[in-house]
């Protein structure tokens, strides 16, 4: 047989085989495309809940969400999970994975597909295709002699772009401060994190020994109002948000006046309720970390209640839900994966006087689509199950809309179309 004719015959045969298996999506396809169809009784797409729907994954992307029957002819690898819940992989907005050397594989296996590392070495974005997607803010910007280097590295001259913190001198000029932000942005920082931590809050983890000797006496020096304003201005010029570590009132005052976008924690000590009300009303947001800081006690919960009530009061005016899910992965007192208790606390403390299903959706969005929007990664559809979104998803047996605890032990985890955990059998 002539070579050209033989080649044509083999190609034609290959296409016929692929078509029979349901893996050809266009007449021009010449190679198999990996696909998976996954259906369940409940599917949260990152924004809304859909019932008896399926997600079709082709390669590393979501191709479609729809009825199982209508999509089943497009893929031979099918999972009909039944009484189960499918969701986008969770996004952890406040972690210390690199600094604390926590296993990325363990985090991924427990349902977190994207993390934002806050504090620690500045790293370019990485992972996302069968491995944990890791984004980095780089080191925490702080005043000379202040937190975090005064706790983790008592000689804070050791700070730098590869350390937990980077100290800014009290006499640093505007151009010097802006240059630090520019360097972080150029190195791939997902956001700019600063410390406005004066210390002294009862029960705060940073007031406890970290194995580096005695915790320095408070108050600790913090960045000036002018320095924070320069940081915020330059960060916004670079398309980056600013996160501030704030534990009490004076730090909140500086952050609010300078236009900081988000507090990296719910403040540990009770802050002025009127100031907090104004900050929330004007759009300041909060990474939750409520479970992590539970030892702070009543002040923490009081602040969270205020935030929740302000949201309920002004949601009708278009105010966005101000809490973004974050559990501070790497701390020993929280799971190194999805934290069901954090979700539970966000729901009950951030929902005002009454809880309805809309509040449940707010909490789930805060760990998926809303978290992705605030990271501004430029990855279309991150945190959702929508066409062309990254195929990052989790599934659990049972109704995770009613019981968040189920999410801590996912029965299926997919990253970039690759199954990392799978306790389900394909449908025959």
Automatic annotation (TrEMBL):
Signal peptide: 1-26
Keywords in alphabetical order: Signal
Gene3D superfamilies reported in the protein's UniProt record: Metal-dependent hydrolases (3.20.20.140), Urease, subunit C, domain 1 (2.30.40.10)
Residue span(s) of domain Amidohydrolase-related: 85-420
A GO MF term: hydrolase activity, acting on carbon-nitrogen (but not peptide) bonds
Pfam families xrefs: Amidohydro_1
UniProt name for this protein: Amidohydrolase
Organism in which the protein naturally occurs: Methylomonas koyamae
């Amino acid at each position: 047989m002539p070579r050209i004719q033989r080649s044509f015959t083999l190609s034609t045969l290959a296409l016929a085989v692929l078509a029979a298996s349901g893996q050809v999506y266009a007449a021009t396809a010449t190679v198999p495309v990996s696909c998976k169809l996954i259906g369940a009784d409940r599917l949260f797409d990152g924004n809304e809940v859909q019932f008896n729907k399926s997600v079709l994954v082709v390669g590393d992307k979501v191709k479609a969400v729809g009825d199982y029957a209508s999509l089943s002819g497009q893929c031979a690898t099918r999972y009909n999970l039944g009484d189960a819940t499918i969701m986008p992989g969770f996004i952890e907005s406040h972690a210390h994975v690199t600094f604390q050397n926590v296993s990325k594989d363990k985090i991924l296996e427990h349902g977190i597909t994207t993390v934002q590392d806050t504090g620690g070495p500045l790293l370019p974005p990485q992972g996302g295709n069968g491995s944990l997607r890791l984004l980095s803010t780089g080191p925490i910007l702080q005043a000379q002699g202040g937190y975090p280097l005064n706790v983790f590295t008592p000689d804070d001259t050791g700070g730098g772009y590869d350390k937990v913190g980077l100290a800014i001198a009290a006499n640093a000029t505007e151009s010097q401060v802006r240059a630090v932000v520019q360097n972080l942005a150029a190195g791939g920082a997902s956001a700019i994190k600063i410390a406005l931590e004066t210390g002294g809050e009862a029960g705060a983890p940073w007031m406890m020994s970290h194995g580096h000797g005695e915790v320095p006496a408070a108050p600790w020096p913090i960045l000036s109002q002018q320095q924070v304003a320069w940081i915020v201005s330059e960060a916004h010029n670079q398309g980056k948000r600013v996160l501030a570590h704030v534990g009490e009132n004076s730090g909140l005052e500086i952050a609010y006046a300078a236009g900081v976008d988000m507090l990296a924690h719910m403040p540990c000590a009770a802050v002025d309720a009127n100031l907090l009300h104004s900050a929330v009303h004007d759009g300041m947001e909060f990474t939750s970390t409520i479970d992590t800081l539970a030892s702070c006690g009543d002040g923490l919960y009081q602040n969270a209640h205020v935030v929740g009530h302000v949201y309920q009061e002004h949601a009708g005016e278009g105010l966005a839900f101000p809490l973004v899910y974050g559990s501070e992965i790497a701390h020993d007192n929280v799971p190194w994966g999805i934290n069901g208790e954090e979700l539970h606390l966000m729901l009950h403390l951030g929902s005002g006087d009454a809880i309805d299903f809309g509040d449940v959706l707010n909490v789930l969005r805060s760990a998926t689509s809303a978290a992705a929007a605030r990271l501004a990664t430029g990855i279309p559809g991150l945190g959702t199950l929508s066409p062309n979104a990254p195929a990052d998803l989790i599934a659990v047996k049972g109704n995770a809309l009613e019981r968040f605890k189920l999410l801590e032990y996912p029965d299926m985890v997919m990253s970039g179309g690759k199954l990392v955990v799978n306790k389900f059998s394909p449908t025959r």
